Amino acid sequence: MSQLSIRLALPDDEEELARLDRAEWSPLHEVLPEQRPPYRPFFDERHLPEDCLVAEADRRILGYVRLGFPTGLDANAHVRQIQGFVVSATARGRGVGRALVRAITEEARRRGARRLTLRVLGHNTPARRLYESEGFAVEGVLPEEFLLAGEYVDDVLMGRRL
């Protein structure tokens, strides 16, 4: 892999990001059913290109992370939430995910956030370890919140101060 770069997504990235999202779908990290045609758009009024960072090398997108607000309430507008995070299977274990987490943390800070939160499935041990190593702590657990592939899975809320 040549030099990794992290940048804001562009509207022209939509097709490649949508393909990556579908290719990496797994009940390990996804609670929505696997997408079938016709596919929903990757970008919409809630998920804008400027709220998404992409990791790329050799002009190929290797992963992305989305930043959003946990609610529409003014009372917690100081909080941002990771609302989507995917790394290509071919790029895992090479620092791409860590680079994206660090970049989105800085982006949230740059946008004035005081806290950054996320939700992760309890059985997604690799993601939980990554988040913990980057300063996130478990702040709550909803036991057996999801039924995925015949198994009940916890929904884990993690967060950190910025």
UniProtKB/TrEMBL annotation:
A single Pfam family it belongs to is Acetyltransf_1
Transferase among keywords: yes
What Gene3D superfamilies does the database record attribute to this sequence?
A: 3.40.630.30
Q: Annotated Gene Ontology MF terms?
A: acyltransferase activity, transferring groups other than amino-acyl groups
Q: Which CDD domains is this protein grouped with?
A: NAT_SF (cd04301)
Q: Show the InterPro entries listed in the entry.
A: Acyl_CoA_acyltransferase, Bact_Acetyltransf, GNAT_dom
Q: Where is the N-acetyltransferase domain?
A: 4-162
Please provide the record's keywords in A-Z order: Acyltransferase, Transferase
| Protein name, UniProt field | Acetyltransferase
Q: Which organism is it from?
A: Streptomyces pseudovenezuelae
